[in-house]
Amino acid sequence: MKANKDKTLDRLSRLEGQVRGVAKMVESDRYCMDILAQTAAIRSAVLGVEKADPRTTREALRRGCDRKRRPGRTARQVR
């Protein structure tokens, strides 16, 4: 489980770098098609995180929802 968590965190760190790179592209008025290509790559990378280790992703979401859940509310009501 630790190895999967580490891989997921590595993927998320790369994603963070990609998002920062796109922000710099926007700040420097880069060509819109270049920006769109990068946002498509980010979208794909996000899906890759979920596909690479769905169990870790699901567990993280479940723990977060459990913390937000108030007495009397179901998991579906927590958003």
UniProtKB/TrEMBL annotation:
Ranges of biased composition (kind: Basic residues): 65-79
Report a single Gene Ontology molecular function. DNA binding
Similarity remark: Belongs to the FrmR/RcnR family.
Q: Name one Pfam family in it.
A: Trns_repr_metal
Q: Biased composition, Basic and acidic residues: where in the chain?
A: 53-64
Which residue stretches belong to region Disordered? Answer: 53-79
List this protein's GO terms for biological process.
Answer: negative regulation of DNA-templated transcription
Q: Which organism is it from?
A: Yoonia ponticola
Listed name of the protein = Poly-gamma-glutamate capsule biosynthesis protein CapA/YwtB (Metallophosphatase superfamily)
Cited Gene3D superfamilies: Metal-sensitive repressor, helix protomer
| InterPro entries xref list | Metal_Tscrpt_repr (IPR003735), Metal_Tscrpt_repr_sf (IPR038390)
